[in-house]
Amino acid sequence: MRTEPLHASPLAVGLPSDVFAEIALILVVSALAGLLAERLRQPVIVAFVAVGVLVGPSVLGVVEPGSELELFAELGVALLLFVVGLKLDLHVVRTTGPVALVVGCAQVAIVAAGGLALALAFGLGFVPALYVAIGLALSSTVIVVKLLSDRRELDDLHGRLAVGILIVQDLVVVVAMIAVATAGENESPGWSLASVALQGAVLLAALGILMRWVLTPLLHALARNPDLLLLFAIAWAVGVAAAGEGVGVGPEVGAFLAGFSLASTPYREAIASRLVTVRDFLLLFFFIDLGSRLQPGDALDQLAVALALSAFVLLVKPLVIVALLGVMRYRSRVALETGLALAQISEFSLILGALGLRYGHVEDDTVTLLTVVALITIAASSYLLLNAEAISRRFAPVLERLERRPPAHAQDESAPPPDVVVLGLGRYGEGIVSGLRERGLDVLGVDFDPVALSRWAQEGVSVLYGDAEDPELAGLLPLPESGWIVSTIRRTDANLALLHALSHRGYTGRVAVAAHRREEADRLRRAGADRVLLPYSSAAKEVVELVSRHAVAQPAGAD
User: Fold this and answer.
1) Phi/psi of residue 122, each to 5°?
2) Helix extents (H) in 68-188
3) Which helix (H) or strand (E) holds 523?
4) Which residues partner with 197 through β-bridges?
5) For residue 488, which of 441, 431, 543, 418 has the smallest C-alpha distance?
6) Is 498 in contact with 513 (CB distance < 8 Å)?
7) Which of 8, 223, 262, 346 can bridge 140 by disulfide, Cβ–Cβ 3.0-4.6 Å?
8) How do 531-533 and 462-465 pair as beta strands?
């Protein structure tokens, strides 16, 4: 793995020299660094880049840029793009209406334009500044999804909006990679573009034929053995990546197309779930390879520029998203929490920079700059997201003055109050509304998602724009005297505000609210909730009841 060090380090003396021992050392150090990052509540990406610096030629001299480590890194990138294509869920974009597409494209354009101007102002050449600008506009799918999942916020409105915008960004970066691979090092870009377009069309046509006639029956046969299914998925990803490199669109785009070609098969989730561990293991080497290329002296020389660009990402980028979602009539709190979730640059920013380095478009200093910005923004945004609720409450009074609320759907004051008022029309709320309507009950749906309100209004459901945390909401509701108010919102502070407002209004009906944990449930009961809904606990009890009933009816061994 190691040739003669470019920059000899006195610490390199006595370290193991064979490849196996070097890999073992890298993995041990990475595991310890990952553990430290978890304790500091930081994504492990930060730790892995730091490990790359540590084992690189500047410190321990264990690895050199361009060594065998790069092969593992390229495989990791290919599998990352493969999984992105495999899990590309356009349904998420559709369920958020045009919002994800419009906000995603506009945010990339605005932030990239601002980043380009800032990079040029710091003296970067146009092409390096363009790479930096596109990198600043992207956000990390891996980090955002993990943090939102850990906080159980993927199904919340800001979580769904963030994931929808990330999908749009993933598509943008694929287009950018095609452009980079097409430009390459050719002196006649016009002819290169035509040639790559023709060969790319042939590759797409071949994949289309294979998707239609070969892949599905082949996967049916392979699925009898899960290990063979996983092996085929890796072989397919690497094979189509090699084909992509052969036709000029690049191995990264080829791997993405390989994943997308399997996205419509019934084995998509099975392949993705088994492949994620392999992908993450190989991506470890990409970040270590990236860190090994980073020279601390060069990083310090660019620290002032990196800090300015990081401030742009951490401050301006969320504000751009807040403004765009505000134009789409989303509440300021939802817009700010979405913006804070996306306030970092992406692993794809680093991959795009490495791709530019490969084709000679940028130098090492540009990749170093992007790496330092990534470390700063990823570390800082993790804490921003963990404190997103507190930050949104702090700035809510200012942002609420700028809100453009959608016109409220008119309520017929002469009509009798509904049987049930459901607050929150997300996935959990949708199921409750559908079930109540099937039983013939009159339901009023309340939410601050304009897309959800419009969709339910088209289905004939009475809807009202409102936020459970708004103290004026109780005064707007046609309160059912003998019915129920059901809040599917699992934010304890929102439900406490709702209970207080209803009590202040003298509401005597029944109230059910949702919660994540039993400790929260006890607090809500003391505040006056008649029932507390624990979705995960209820689902577990339902499964236990179903399975135990079947087991009693048909004991093990019975015919």
Assistant:
1) -85, 5
2) 69-86, 90-95, 98-121, 126-137, 141-150, 157-183
3) helix 518-526
4) none
5) 431
6) yes
7) 346
8) unpaired
Torsion of CA 494, 445, 401, 318, to 10 degrees: 70
Taking alpha carbons only, the member of 287, 293, 262, 264 closest to residue 275 is 262
Q: Are 132 and 309 in contact (CB under 8 A)?
A: yes
What is the rounded CA–CA span in Å between residue 131 and residue 176? Answer: 10
The two tokens of residue 388 are 């997103």
The residue type at 315: L
Q: Does the pTM exceed 0.85?
A: no
Q: Of all helices (H) and strands (E), which one includes residue 446? A: strand 443-447
- Residue 348: which of 131, 66, 116 has the closest Cα? 131
Identify the top-confidence range among 176-185, 462-471, 495-504. 495-504
Angle separating helix axes 332-341 and 388-400, nearest 10 degrees: 140
> Are the C-beta atoms of residues 507 and 529 closer than 8 Å to each other?
no
Position 403 scores a pLDDT of: 64
Query: Tokens standing for 543?
Result: 């499964």
The residue that leads in pLDDT, 221 or 543, is: 221
Answer yes or no: are the C-beta atoms of 326 and 403 closer than 8 Å.
yes
How far is the C-alpha of 149 from the C-alpha of 143, rounded, in Å? Answer: 10
At position 93, the amino acid (one-letter code) is V
Contacts (Cβ under 8 Å, ≥6 apart) of 553: none
What are the beta bridge partners of residue 465? Answer: 447
Q: Give the CA angle between residues 28, 32, 35 to the nearest 5°.
A: 140
Beta bridge partners of 420: 443, 484
Which tens digits make up the pLDDT trace of 86-131? 877 655 555 555 788 899 999 999 999 999 999 999 999 999 999 9
- Which secondary structure element, helix H or strand E, spans residue 482, and what is its range? none
Q: How far apart are CA 110 and CA 133, in angstroms?
A: 10
